[in-house]
Specification:
The protein is of the alpha/beta class. It has helices at residues 21-28, 49-59, 76-86, 105-121, 127-131, 161-166, 186-192, 202-212, 237-241, 244-249, 251-268, 272-282, and strands at residues 8-14, 37-42, 64-66, 91-95, 100-101, 135-144, 150-152, 183-185, 216-228.
Length: 285
Amino acid sequence: MERNNYKIAILLATYNGGKYIWEQLESLFQQSCGDFHLYIRDDGSKDDTLKIVEEYRQKFSDRITVLEDSQKHKGAAKSFMTLLQEVDSDYYMFCDQDDIWLPNKVELTFARMKEIEGTAENSAGTANAVGNAPVLVATDLKVVDEQLSPIKNSFNADLKIDVFRKHPELICVRHVVTGCTMMFNRAAKEASLPMSPRATMHDEWVALSVHFKGGIISILDDATILYRQHTSNTLGAEQASKGFFARALARAGQKQFFQVAKLLHKDFGLPYLKFLMYKILYSWF
């Protein structure tokens, strides 16, 4: 693939990830599209995460920047959003420390991004308005266990992506965009900053911001990540695969219900009644 003039920033938030991070870093630098720069922020690791990161930084000194930050233990969401705020780029990708990116992930996602932007730029009479819109592209994932043995070839089915394509409002009541699969443009970044204090996850916040601020969300059926599930995962594939009623009856599900309802109402103006209507309607899918 020929190099282009666009800047792609991969944002990697780390915390005690020494067990798996070397595999993730190795997969990044085996991408078919190498036109990216990797930015890393550590949240106060006590293991050998930073030692491994430094080994790769020395090996790829012109392509890795480690952000120094005196604040530690912000948590994953704030760590990713700090990276997003501090890095100036044309395109952004979130990267988890324990997954493995398949070799065509950057190339495939970026091709779809440029396809959408190219269509927007060529739309007669709407080039400026649409061309400057927030755009987010995501992909499918292959779910694997700690040893990378397959669990599920497609995660999109659990996320109800086909329903989302027909009914975009599903994003209000279900997590349909997985952060580690995302690429989004500068306009999406601007739409997402600052993150609301009511938001709990960075990827959900970015996706909602793009949706409610007139953006475009496109989700590919191609799986571009080995999505590793292990004992440290707190928001993995298992939770997403549970049915609506199982999640709603759980105490955590009840808490999340009210958190999301308040977030959508206060930050995006969605009436509580409409949120409840969406919850009831889409619980059957």
